[in-house]
Structure formats: C-alpha cells, structure tokens
Amino acid sequence: MRQQGVYLDYNATAPLRRQAAEAMVEAFSVAGNPSSVHGFGRAARRLVETAREAVAALVGAEPDQVVFTSGGTEANNLALSGPAGRPVLLSAGEHDSLLKAAPSAILVALDASGALDLEALEQALDQARETGAPPVLVSIMLANNETGVIQPLERVAELVHARGGRLHCDAVQAAGKLPLDKTRLGADLLSLSAHKLGGPMGVGALVADRDAGLTPLIRGGGQERRRRAGTENVAAIAGFGAAVLAARQDLAEGAEMPRLARLRDRMEDAVQAAAPAARLFGADAPRLPNTSCFTMPGVRAETQVMALDLAGIAVSAGAACSSGKVEPSHVLRAMGVGPLEAEQAIRVSLGWATREADISLFLEAWKALYVRRSAA
Ligand code: PLP
Fold first, then answer.
1. I want to staple 242 with a disulfide (CB 3.0 to 4.6 A). Which of 19, 188, 295, 335 is the partner?
2. Lining residues, ligand 1, CB within 6 Å
C-alpha cells in the first residue's frame, strides 16, 4: 500500500529502496538455514555473505569484522559490552541506545553549534585514566540524528588512542549520506542500521576490530563468529546489502547529496525569510546535507507536527518521541538551548525520493501555520 503525502522524516526511517525490496522478495524463496551444510543452507549463506561484503565495503572494513544485529540499537548496546569496570565516555548528544544503555557513563559536553567540546573530552579522558580502571571506551556519533551535526571523529580518535582507549562510532545517520572509512575515521567499532539508508527495519551491524573483545548480548549458537547467536534474518540482511549497494552508488555518482543540500538550503532560506525569529540549529557546524532542525517561534513542535500531518506532510519533533510522548530534545538542551525554544524545534529530513515539489508543499503549509498562529 503506497501512502500519499510528503515524507520528510528520513532520519526516523527512509522508505525502502526498490533494490532492497527486490532482494528481500528473492531471499524469501530461499528455504535453507545459513548454518546448514546442504545446498539449501549454502544458498542462504551466500545471501548473508554477499550482504556482509557490501556492508564491509561501505565502511572500508573486512567482511569478518561485520556482526549483523537487529538494528542500530543492538549494535550500540553490543559496542558497550566489554571488560567490567571499564569507564565509558559518551557525548551528551548521543542516541538513547547509548545513553540509556550506559547510565553511569561520563558525559562530554557539546558546544552551542552542536560540535563536541574537544577540551572537555581531553579532560574527561585524563580523569578516566587516573582512576586506574581498564582503558576507557569512548562513543561519539559521526552525525547527529536531530541536527545533522558532524563530529570531528578523526581528531577524537587521536585523543582517545593516545590514552590507550577505544573508540566506538555510531554512524547510523552518517551511513549512506557521507563517504565512510572506518580506518580513516579511527573508529575501533562502528554501528550501522539498514533502515536509515533505505534497507528494512530490524537489521543493522556492528563493525568491530578483531580484538574488540565483545561479549555477546545474545547467547546460544555460534553464529556471527560467536559474537551474536541466533539464526540470521536472511531476507532482512539481503535487503540491507542491496540498500547499501544502492546508497553507495548514489554517493559515488556524486549528485545526490549536493541536490539534497540545495533543497535543504532553499527551505531554510524560505523559513528564515518568513519567520526571521525562527532559530536554526547546527547550521554553524559541518552538517549532513539532508537534515534541518529549526523552530517556529511561539509554536510547540507537537502542534507543528500535527498541523503538518493534517496537510499530508510528515516531519518529526526535534525531540525524542519513541514512546509517543514528546520530551524536549536532550541534544538541543546539551547545546545550551532553553527548554521553551527546544520544545518549538522540528526536524525536517530529506532523502532519495524528495523532490522540489515536496519542499514547496512543506513551505506552504509551514508558513500558513505560522501566519495563522501569529494572528491568533
Ligand atoms: N543511533 C542513531 C544516531 C539513530 O538515529 C538511531 C535511530 O533513530 C539509532 C541509533 C537506532 O537504530 P535502530 O532504529 O536501527 O535501532
């Protein structure tokens, strides 16, 4: 069932790419268990390993470094596994799948632009080293899901490695939008999620150095080189692999991200022209080309999201709403934004199917709401 309307919520999930859907349908007709040695099993195994090669190539890693998981959340949780008592450092803008999974982590501040405060990171690293605990695990996302702000991972890696620590990078939002090279970034571990780049929901991967010392979260059989038990979700993994190839092709052709950046910039210029007091977040830092987070002065994000939905336009509140309840964004709060303003921020995120007309319809509806609310 194709839904009508304008979809501008790619950072929540991207529509399934045609190539991924086709690969999944084909995989559903393969009967074997990838662990079985017979021909049926070997056919399923081939699908899994082909996808593993595609995912590894996406981030410049080796296929045996890829552990398929149920998504970005599980990949992040698995990245945190390791020696007991190891201190964990996270940026204050990380996704809840890290913040909630490591409640005693030391949080490193963001600056007003959304970039990581590197001096604060250095201080926290030095303090963690003084405790005499096992070497620290630092987890910093490459691109933020709410603002799109890109963190200086290579510099972070230098600081972390100089102190004997390990670096995990949540690259869930960056994958498919930026070229990725795990080695160049300096990440020892890197998380991916299929549905953010046009693959199916419920599958992702942790790409981990061979000596990462992971402790499986799910125990049982010896699948995924004993790092994640359970029969692989073959069709979803095949869809993930196909989506990765399609996303890489878009990136290699070089036109897609500049196209999205142009649409995004046109939208932001029009928003600022219509509402000069609207505040744009993250625009002073390097940002993903598809992401925009801004306020409608005086109007709560929930009101905007609902009014836009009535007009057939899907965006999200720039806040966490995974439980249906909208909380002011911890990312914006970490950037020093006050609670009232943070509650007025929406996130508009574009992707491969977004067209000029979608942005025009969004602007028409957003401006009409602003005029209505300003007159009220
Ligand atoms: N990390 C980031 C930055 C995300 O944006 C998300 C999803 O919103 C996740 C992790 C979790 O990924 P998944 O939905 O595959 O569990």
1. 19
2. 71-73, 76, 95, 97, 141, 145, 170, 172-173, 193, 195, 204
Output the CA 9–ligand 1 centroid distance in Å: 13
**Which residues lie across from 206 on neighbouring strands?**
67, 191
Atom of ligand 1 nearest to the CA of 76: 10
**Rounded to 5 degrees, what angle do the CA atoms 313, 316, 318 make?**
145
pLDDT digits (tens, 9 = 90+) for 243-270: 999 999 999 999 999 999 999 999 999 9
Per-chain mean pLDDT for the chain: 95
* Strands 204-208, 189-193: pairing kind: antiparallel
- Identify the active-site residue in 12, 57, 274, 321: 321
